[in-house]
Queue: 2 jobs
Job 1
Amino acid sequence: MPTSFEYLLVGGGLQNSLIMLALLHRNPSVRLAIIEKDSRIGGNHTWSLHTTDIPPGAMEWFKPAISHEWPRYEVRFPNRRRMIEIGYASIFSADLHELITQRGTDAPGVELLLERGAIEVGAHHVTLDDGTRLEAPVVIDSSGPKDSIQGCGYQKFVGWEVELAEPMKSLTPIVMDSLVEQHDGFRFHYMLPYSPTRCLFEETYFSDGPTLDLPVIRRRIESYIHDNGYRMASLIREETGVLPMPWKLDLVTADEPGPLRAGYKGGWFHPATCYSLPVILRLSQLIANSYPTRPAGIEWEKFVKTHRSQSRFASLLNALLFRTFPPEARWHIFERFYGFPMDTIRRFYSLELTTGDKLRFLCGRPPRGFSLRQLWRQPVSAGKES
Ligand SMILES: Cc1cc2nc3c(=O)[nH]c(=O)nc-3n(C[C@H](O)[C@H](O)[C@H](O)COP(=O)(O)OP(=O)(O)OC[C@H]3O[C@@H](n4cnc5c(N)ncnc54)[C@H](O)[C@@H]3O)c2cc1C
């Protein structure tokens, strides 16, 4: 183990993996440790993003983390079907684990401390669960989301990676197929074909409550596969997620004392899509550009301010979605959104909306179902099917 570190990265999830790749690109001899309480990097996830979310300069170090790419994707609503001409890409956590392990082995200054929990995280030190105290000028805490968030709806999903008995007709992803019966808020199906016979089928809900009714949702995935003319040969993997879509935010401030909070821990995610890749890629790039110190100064202040202002607007959209539309009418909002110009869709996902884009969201005739009276209604009880 190196005797001294420049960086201590708490949490071996997506954010710190990206920070490590960015720092290694900046300086292959960087001295850093990743501290992860589990035995693997990245958990059990499929993470996706629009390829236009990758900031300039990041492609070189980020490209090896991409497991699969598509040139476009489709969305389906009762009154709109559209091909979205924006590239889409996925990272598989199993591939990320391999990549980070390999880089950790190759790089002389990198130490992967797996199955080691951090029990105390300070601005310049971390205490591990066996009492070891590590020190470094920069400590980054990306230990994941807080247990509870006040004031939010939820994006929740169950995904099945499946081997199919026959090849699929199309290898174009469907990011929102809402031609399904609506239950428990806005329900849609998400489909990522990795090969003619390998596909991720994911049931997703934008709901008032966080409960996942696994037996019911699994049956719906089976029905979706069957109703779309596919036959399952085997189930490879299941993943689940319950992500808050907040309208109250806990975001990093530029002059915050203590360790640098990154990833979900610092509110570096898109409140209205729950994607964090666009913002954590930008943050990773900035951290690497600031090597060997922690980001600071005017550029950092501007970066934080921009994220806070974009996040506030996205959280207003969450409040409108969850508090002024009854659950069964929420799909109208997304159908309207996917009629927007391609550039607005792209900027929405990358959390880089212009004033004109924001006006487009708020002005004009509201989608069907909008009701201010909803504001005074009690939210639907947690997880209850509607
Ligand atoms: C199932 C799922 C799918 C998602 N899909 C997408 C997607 O498609 N696109 C997208 O952009 N975003 C997606 N997200 C949202 C977001 O990108 C992820 O939540 C992402 O993993 C956040 O990165 P992170 O590093 O902040 O947290 P995590 O990846 O959750 O990493 C936190 C890590 O810290 C570790 N840890 C926690 N406490 C300690 C401790 N005390 N000591 C040591 N280690 C600790 C945890 O074990 C974990 O490995 C998804 C989230 C989930 C749950």
Note: The pocket of flavin-adenine dinucleotide is lined by residues 10-16, 35-38, 43, 45, 47-49, 117-118, 142-144, 239, 241, 243, 263-265, 269, 274-277 (CB under 6 Å).
Job 2
Amino acid sequence: MKEKIQRFDDLKVWKGEIPTWFRYTAGVAGEQFLRALKEHQKIMGVQCPKCERVFVPPRLYCEECMEYTREWVEISGPGYVETYTVLHRDLEDQPLDPPKIVALITWPGVEGGLIHEIREIDPDEMVFGLPVEPVFKKDPRGSITDIEYFRPVE
Ligand SMILES: [Zn+2]
């Protein structure tokens, strides 16, 4: 079949369904991270044995030292809103009421951070540097959404 499309109108569309399935793996470090969320409701990071930097989400190797990061450490204490955005419409362009707040949350002395939803605060009250804590789901499944959302620390 050799057909040269000259005009946009000549494009053909066949509508239908293609049955398929896939399995996503989080990788060695990612799986342990998700397992800690599910089984212990803890956010875990890994520490480089050489430069002692801690990474969240965890990774197998320190990108600076190329050292294998095998030391797991619990990330405790509040995270802080590094930056955030307020979403007023969903992916189908429908209004979100109330609006959703999505933030990059970081921890002092930790490389990286997590992007997650912030609730229990009015968007107008959001500020950079807001201390937040995770609220875990009652029925964890080994997913980043086992953290249901983050909320301001009282
Ligand atoms: Zn390192």
Note: The first strand starts at residue 44 and ends at 47.
